[in-house]
Amino acid sequence: MSRPRTAHPYRDLDVIDARAPRFNQATVGLVSLLAVVSGWWPLLTLLALQLGIGLRFGRRYCLACVAYFKLVQPRFGEGPIEDSRPPRFANQIGLAVLSTATAAHVVGLTTLGAGLGILVAGLALLAAATGICAGCEMYRVGARLRGIRQRAIDRLELGDLGAPLLAGELIVAFSHPLCTDCRTVEAELAAGSHPFVRVDVRDRPDLARKYGVALVPTVVRVGPDGSVIRGVGTG
């Protein structure tokens, strides 16, 4: 039985059905491959324009996204919900590479343009088929590096979190209510023996910014004085 929709595709923009980016990647990959094989490089330009319009004006103007949410999701149900920032970053990289490929063809560097088109096609089809998204992984690595360098979590103000005063350790889980992995982590924490506090980054974006939480779920273990003992896990 298909899952009912929990995240609205055009309102809940900080999360996305994980199948939607893969559907978009399949579209980009197939059209890019067709452009290279047929030699009709303006298809790369059309893909770049479509990615740019979707990034600028939202999912309602992304044709592949609309096709997924209108035709595919109603039939097969909602997939796992994930953070929308990694696939958005991947789309930004795709836009940059496709724009460069277009420019290369315009100035007569057809080999370079075709090579970039093949690169986009290969990475997009790989992501669609396996879920291994190079751009998404680049975002996650970059987010972790930014957090380590700029705002490593070494202490949490328990008063910020509304946490009770405890003599022992406390687990703090930064999560989003629509995030599938977040719900899994919270269920595991609830079944455990340690007390934990959930911080909803949708309701408390100020705390996400304050503590440099770039991805959810992010889970840390803290002492009674708020000092971070160790990170338990990051999405």
The count of domains is 2
Q: Work out the strand percent.
A: 5-15%
Helical percentage: 55-70%
SSE ordering? EHHHEHHHHEHEHEE
Mean pLDDT: 86
Number of strands: 6
Distance between the termini: 27 Å
Total DSSP helices = 9
* Main sheet makeup: 4 strands, mixed
List the uncertain runs: none
Describe this structure in words.
It is a single chain. The protein has nine helices and six strands; from the N terminus they run E-H-H-H-E-H-H-H-H-E-H-E-H-E-E. By secondary structure, it is an alpha+beta fold. Strand 3, helix 8 (180-191) and strand 4 form a beta-alpha-beta unit. The longest helix is centred in the middle third of the chain and has 22 residues, at 85-106. It is elongated and about 70 Å long. The chain starts with 14 loop residues before the first strand and ends with a strand. The relative contact order is 0.13. The model has no long low-confidence stretch (mean pLDDT 86).
Mind sketching the topology for me?
Blueprint: E1 15-17, H1 19-38, H2 42-57, H3 63-76, E2 81-83, H4 85-106, H5 110-130, H6 134-150, H7 158-161, E3 170-175, H8 180-191, E4 196-200, H9 205-210, E5 218-222, E6 228-234
Parallel strand pairs: 3-4
Antiparallel strand pairs: 1-2, 3-5, 5-6
Helix pairs in contact: 1-2, 1-3, 1-5, 2-4, 4-5, 4-6
Give the key terms:
single chain; 235 residues; 2 domains; two-stranded antiparallel sheet; 9 helices; 6 strands; 56% helix
